[in-house]
Specification:
By secondary structure, the chain is mainly alpha-helical. The chain has helices spanning about 25-35, 40-50, 90-95, and strands spanning about 5-10, 15. Strand 1 and strand 2 form a beta hairpin. The mean pLDDT is about 80. InterPro entries: Ribosomal_mS25/mL61 (IPR040049).
Length: about 100
């Protein structure tokens, strides 16, 4: 077994770990302490994820998947045909969609 493994980081710096006569738990805790996030950081990230569940947000993994589900918003065009004034053909070409 290698007693001094070398860890190369993305920035190019090298770190030599002395693991001679250490058990796997102490090696794991040393590597976790050096390279992993601390418990405080993990708790702060979990709190930030919880704050993202704002009722004003919509989309996947939110309270509403579409803005049309929020009361007072314009209904989605997949469920309700929009008025002529909101259609591009009528607004820009001054042409009724049903004529096509």
């Amino acid at each position: 077994m290698i007693t001094n493994p070398v860890v190369v980081q993305n920035c190019g710096s090298k770190l030599v770990l002395d693991i001679d006569s250490q058990n796997k738990d102490s090696i794991f805790s040393a590597v976790k302490k050096i390279f992993c996030k601390s418990e405080e950081t993990l708790e702060a990230e979990a709190l930030a994820r919880e704050k993202k569940s704002n009722p004003a947000n919509f989309g996947y993994m939110c309270t509403h998947e579409c803005i049309c589900e929020v009361p007072g918003q314009v209904p989605c065009t997949r469920w309700v045909i929009p008025p002529k004034e909101q259609r591009g053909k009528f607004k820009f070409l001054h042409k009724d969609v049903e004529e096509d």
